[in-house]
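Reminder to self: tokens first, then the designed residues, so the page reads top to bottom the way the pipeline ran.
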């Protein structure tokens, strides 16, 4: 039986595209919907190019969740993947999809997580604190930012000459390599 996945993204959508391509020829997992809260984000163009249905919603529509819930139900979504999605997932959505929403964070949680900690802010904080390593964390989503059960972490060294941009590039490579594989493992275990 095929498990249907929705991907939520707020920005460029490079992770979303990578995940879609990974599952393109899968016999048991299909990306059936891309959702975004930002109609001007590059993920919108990527969804069109990938020919995957797109749903644009506002922050209040996410928080209310009823319309979004019907869109997810119509698309028979079993699992939700956050790929650079910046809004907090509402409690009702977490209740309806328990342990079926995953997120990727560009740091080794529990360090450098929480509200406002995303992208460049995370990398700058890691460098400011002279950490010797950083990495990615894939975790289930609960009712608190970046506090859901950790599924997987992968580390990388932080060099003295690293900048927020160079650290971001290292982490993107880890994200592209591991996120789709871990998503597949989690879905197939369910």
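Designed residues (190 positions):
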């Amino acid at each position: 039986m095929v498990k249907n996945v929705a991907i939520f993204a707020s920005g460029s959508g490079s992770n979303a595209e990578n995940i879609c391509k990974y599952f393109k020829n899968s016999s048991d997992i299909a990306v059936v919907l891309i959702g975004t809260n930002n109609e001007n984000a590059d993920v919108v163009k990527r969804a069109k190019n990938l020919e995957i249905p797109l749903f644009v919603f506002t922050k209040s529509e996410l928080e209310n969740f009823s319309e979004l819930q019907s869109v997810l139900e119509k698309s028979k979504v079993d699992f939700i993947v956050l790929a650079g999605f910046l809004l907090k997932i509402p409690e009702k959505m977490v209740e309806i999809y328990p342990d079926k929403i995953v997120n990727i964070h560009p740091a080794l949680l529990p360090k450098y997580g929480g509200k406002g900690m995303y992208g460049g802010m995370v990398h700058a904080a890691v460098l400011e604190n002279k950490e010797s390593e950083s990495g990615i964390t894939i975790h289930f989503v609960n009712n608190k930012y970046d506090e859901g059960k950790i599924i997987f972490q992968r580390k990388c060294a932080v060099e003295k000459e690293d900048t927020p941009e160079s650290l971001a590039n290292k982490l993107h490579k880890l994200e592209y390599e591991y996120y789709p594989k871990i998503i597949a493992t989690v879905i197939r275990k369910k």
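The radius of gyration is 16 Å.
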